[in-house]
Write a structure and sequence with these properties.
Blueprint lengths: L2 H18 L13 H4 L3 E9 L2 E6 L4 E4 L1 H7 E13 L2 E14 L11 E21 L3 E15 L2 E3 L3 E3 L2 E16 L4 E12 L3 E13 L2 E13 L10 E16 L1
Antiparallel strand pairs: 1-4, 1-14, 2-3, 2-14, 4-5, 5-6, 6-7, 6-8, 7-10, 8-9, 10-11, 11-12, 12-13, 13-14
Length: 255
Amino acid sequence: MNKMQSAMALLAITGNVLMAGGDIVPVEPVVLEESVIDEWEFHASLNLWMPDIAIETAVGPTINLTFKDILKNLDMTLMSTLGAQKGKWGFLADIVYLNISKEIFVPVDPPLVLTGLQMKAWIVTPMVTYRFMESENLSLDVLAGARYLHIKTPTEVSYLVTGEPSGNAWDGIIGLRGKYDLNEKWFMPFHFDVGTGDIDLTWQAYAGVGYKYENWDVVAGYRYLTWSFDKNDVGGEVFNDLTVNGPILGFKYHF
């Protein structure tokens, strides 16, 4: 059979099908399984956190470092967030690294003077999230995870101690995070968590305003992160309280 004959045969078959009309059984639309629809989504953020740091020491004085002090004496920093989402489940890892050196003079009673401070800190918070509520404008996730704090503080304290205390602390955390869409472009993210473990208490709060542009989110907000130490905790021989808080600007890319 040549090409012309094949074409004529195909045309005849098509005509017969069309003429059958009512005998054709309608084809049901194909419904994709949920597992096919829910694909992995990933995002990465670079953050510019501009915090003040308040250190209430176990020996008495409180050391306050403004963002100006930190910027002036900053040796190195890294602030980033990595995340993945598939359906209702998500994974996040928030990473902060600080290396600060500063000469500080703090009179205390009895008369002692802290003459040097260097602080190297890793703050890493891995989390698992589950979206339990989602409407047209609001999404809410419950979260569970851990906060890792590695802090190394070589200090020289006149008449008191010269040392290089350091420690690694893990605290379990639970919390809530979410996002409220103001319109198609503007939104408000928020986050709260609290936990305990190697340190008596840690908690964090964050809220901001963001703007979507193609695959990018630009978010400005305020972040507050604190630890309260017991004397027997990791780092409790140096700290009573450690607080890092200030405005933050983030650039998130979705891929």
